[in-house]
Structures are given as structure tokens and as C-alpha cells.
Design a protein that fits this description.
The chain is of the alpha/beta class. It folds into two domains: 184 residues, 3-Layer(aba) Sandwich (Rossmann fold); 171 residues, Rossmann fold. The protein is built from 14 helices and 15 strands. An eight-stranded mixed sheet has the order 3-2-1-4-5-6-14-15. A hairpin with a 2-residue loop joins strand 14 and strand 15. The longest helix has 22 residues. It is globular and about 70 Å long. Nicotinamide-adenine-dinucleotide binds next to helix 5, helix 6 and strand 8.
Length: 374
């Protein structure tokens, strides 16, 4: 029987990306496999139904039919509540699911025995996260582009030009977390001529940034004292931290209250719960900022959907080797052979295979190896 890979339209507020681009569909093995694409799923990212058909996909008019016929469902963002009813035990759901922060979704996946793969948690032995990384690259670069815009007086900011001009100092950018988001934000901020500081607890990350910019970006060990000191005169402060499980509120309300009026705090890590204490709500691309203590707060959980064409292509290319393997071997064999892919499996046949998630949900943890036997 043909197993279908399905590409639903993304339903999260402000989401414009699509999980598979026509060129990547064209590169997947065709025997015994088909690709279903929901009608107009790629339009906002610049990919037409005709392009998908040319690449060999079948366009499906309704989400009901798509989920019904699918075995593998490939999403960018987590399914929304109205999609939960489609879940069933034959589904393998792959996407940035953020289950640590999406308890209701996690409970539904367990109840309906879906095999779920949380792409943001897929990691290699040396800590790289190959599927999150392209979106983090986009988000880091966009954060500076957007932050610079919010500093403009007409946008509610302090009226500072990030790069300064000869004779007038540049703005200051403080980035908490020197991983992929942090490095890419630093690249654009440094390129614009800003005064940039990156704080991290991992010495290797700080050393990498120091070398990448030949010392042109300052690096500091991250702790409450250095964060407070660097934040005080920042024009843009970016939360770019990742920890599995509950996120620490590293930038406290007291720190934000000390910041300059019209400065901007941006919690790129908001999709994981965020690290800035004064961010008490997520924002959207339509209304990206709100003001609190005189500081603009930006907390958009899907930053890359401002540039869906670049982001969808980058996502699809990162997914390609995994999808190719799943296409050829099926999910069980792929998980057994590919230990990197296996790190993303969160739930399987009603069991919780992610230790962190089991802890958060207060449920029993089952080792994936015990279920699929590796
Ligand atoms: N909003 C969006 O659209 C979007 C897009 C991509 C990524 N993200 C989020 O951005 C965050 C960063 O992603 P990434 O790919 O750069 O992760 P990463 O793992 O590459 O980097 C995270 C960094 O945080 C550092 N860190 C951990 N604890 C810290 C602390 N106490 N102080 C300072 N640094 C600390 C780690 O050492 C690491 O270098 C994640 O939460 C991710 O989910 C959001």
C-alpha cells in the first residue's frame, strides 16, 4: 500500500511557511511513496499548486482528506487545536512541536497514539541541532533587522540608528545566548556597525564568537550580574537561549526596569517559554510589540515566517536527508539506524519517549530503544 507524506496548510497565527518545497519533493524516492499537499499550502511562501503537481505531488482540497490519507504528516509549527481531531495511531507527525510548552497537544498525541517527532529537539552527539538550526539562522538575522526598525521614533523606539554615523556612536545590541540565533544576530548587528555583546554560559560558544568576529564582538560569561550590567545601556536586547525543559527567566523585571526608555527587548526564545520575565504574552507579526516600563517588548514565536520563501527552502533542505531515509526505510528502521533522528521522538504508541517531557507531564518515561529495539 502506498504511504503518503502529507503537507498541511500551516494554521498557527501569522504562519506563512510551508514544510516541503517542490524541488525537495522532486528529489524524494517515488516507489511506494506519494506526497499530498493541501491546496494553497505553499502560496504565501511563493510556491503554487501547479509547481507542486509538476514535482509529482497530489493536491488535496481539504485537511480532512489530507490527514485521513496520510501516514507521515510534515508540519513546520505545532498542530493547532482544530487539527487534534485528525490525529490517529497510523500517523507519524514531524514538526517543531514544542511539547514541553504545549501540554494539551502532548496529551492528545499520547491519547491518540501518534508517533511524534519534535524536530527542534533533534541533536547530534556534539550538541548541534540540525533541523532547528536553519530557522535559528533566519530568526537571528531577522531579529536585528526588526529590532533596528523598532528603534525608529515612528515605531515607538528611542530614535537611534543602530549603526550610528561618523561622529555619533552606534547603538548597543546585547544577545543572551551565543548559539545559532545568537551568532547570526551578532553577524548582522556587527555588519550594521552596532556595538555588540554576547553572553553565554558555554565557554566554547563564546570562544567561537570571539574568533568569528576577530574580537569585534564582546563576549561575557552569562550570570545575573553580567546580564544586568550589559542590559542597562542596551538599545536592543535579544533572548537567544535554549535549554531543554523549563526556561529560566534570566532577564528579570528589575533588569528591564533599569533599561533605557525606547529600547527594545526581543525574546526569540519565546517559543520555548522565553527568558525575559516581563514578556507576559506572545505577539504576532501583525502586532509584534507592546510597551512595558518604557521598553518595547517583541515576542513573536515564528520569526522566520516574515521571510517564508527563504525559511521554507532552508527547512526543506535540512529535512531532506531524514525524509529520504524515512521514504526508503520507513520510520521504525530509520529511527533504529539514525540515532540523530531518534533523539527527536517524543511520543510513540501512547508512550512518552522523551524523558524531559515525561517529567513535565508527570508521566512514566519509556526508553525508545525498549519499544523499537535498538
Ligand atoms: N521565535 C522563533 O521564531 C525562533 C526561531 C528559531 C529558534 N528559536 C528559539 O531560539 C532559541 C535559541 O535557539 P538556538 O538554535 O540558537 O539554540 P542553541 O542551542 O544553538 O543556542 C542556545 C544557547 O543558549 C546558551 N545558554 C544556555 N543557558 C544560558 C544562560 N543561562 N545564559 C546564556 N546563555 C545560555 C547555550 O549555551 C547555547 O549556546 C531557542 O529557544 C529556540 O527555540 C525561536
Amino acid at each position: 500500500m502506498v504511504k503518503y507524506f502529507a503537507v498541511p496548510k500551516e494554521l498557527k497565527a501569522g504562519e506563512t511557511r510551508v514544510s516541503l518545497t517542490p524541488d525537495v519533493i522532486g528529489m524524494l524516492p517515488k516507489e511506494e511513496r506519494g506526497v499530498l499537499v493541501e491546496k494553497d499550502a505553499g502560496l504565501l511562501a511563493g510556491f503554487t499548486n501547479e509547481e507542486y503537481e509538476k514535482a509529482g505531488a497530489e493536491i488535496v482540497s481539504t485537511p480532512e482528506e489530507l490527514w485521513e490519507r496520510a501516514t507521515y504528516v510534515l508540519k513546520i509549527k505545532e498542530p493547532q487545536v482544530e487539527e487534534y481531531k485528525f490525529f490517529n495511531s497510523k500517523h507519524v507527525l514531524l514538526g517543531y512541536l514544542h511539547l514541553d510548552n504545549e501540554k494539551q497537544l502532548a496529551e492528545e498525541l499520547i491519547k491518540r497514539k501518534v508517533c511524534s517527532v519534535s524536530l527542534e529537539t533533534i541533536h547530534t552527539k556534539n550538541g548541534e541541532r540540525p533541523i532547528l538550526s536553519p530557522m535559528s539562522q533566519v530568526a537571528g538575522r531577522i531579529a536585528i533587522q526588526a529590532g533596528a526598525k523598532f528603534l525608529e521614533r515612528t515605531m515607538g523606539g528611542s530614535g537611534i540608528l543602530l549603526g550610528g554615523v561618523p561622529g555619533v556612536s552606534a547603538g548597543k545590541v546585547v544577545i543572551i545566548g551565543g548559539g545559532t540565533v545568537g551568532l547570526n544576530a551578532a553577524r548582522v548587528a556587527h555588519g550594521m556597525g552596532a556595538d555588540v555583546s554576547v553572553l553565554d554560559v558555554n565557554h566554547k560558544k563564546l570562544a567561537k564568537i570571539d574568533l568569528a568576529f576577530n574580537g569585534g564582538v564582546k563576549t561575557f560569561y552569562s550570570n545575573p550580574m553580567t546580564i544586568a550590567r550589559e542590559a542597562k545601556d542596551a538599545d536592543i536586547l535579544i533572548g537567544a537561549v535554549y535549554v531543554q525543559g523549563k526556561m529560566p527567566k534570566l532577564v528579570t523585571a528589575d533588569v528591564v526596569k533599569q533599561m533605557k526608555k525606547g529600547s527594545v527587548v526581543m525574546d526569540v526564545a519565546i517559543d520555548q517559554g522565553g527568558v525575559i520575565e516581563t514578556i507576559d504574552r506572545i505577539t504576532t507579526h501583525e502586532n509584534p510589540v507592546y510597551e512595558k516600563y518604557g521598553v518595547l517588548h517583541y515576542a513573536v514565536p515564528n520569526v522566520p515566517s516574515t521571510v517564508p520563501k527563504t525559511a521554507s527552502l532552508a527547512f526543506s533542505y535540512a529535512m531532506f536527508p531524514y525524509l529520504h531515509q524515512i521514504c526508503e526505510e520507513g520510520i521504525i528502521a530509520a529511527i533504529k539506524k539514525n540515532e540523530v533522528l531518534a533523539t527527536g521522538v517524543s511520543t510513540f504508541n501512547g508512550m512518552v519517549t522523551s524523558e524531559k517531557l515525561a517529567d513535565i507531564l508527570d508521566k512514566e518515561h519509556t526508553e525508545l530503544s525498549m519499544i523499537v529495539g535498538f
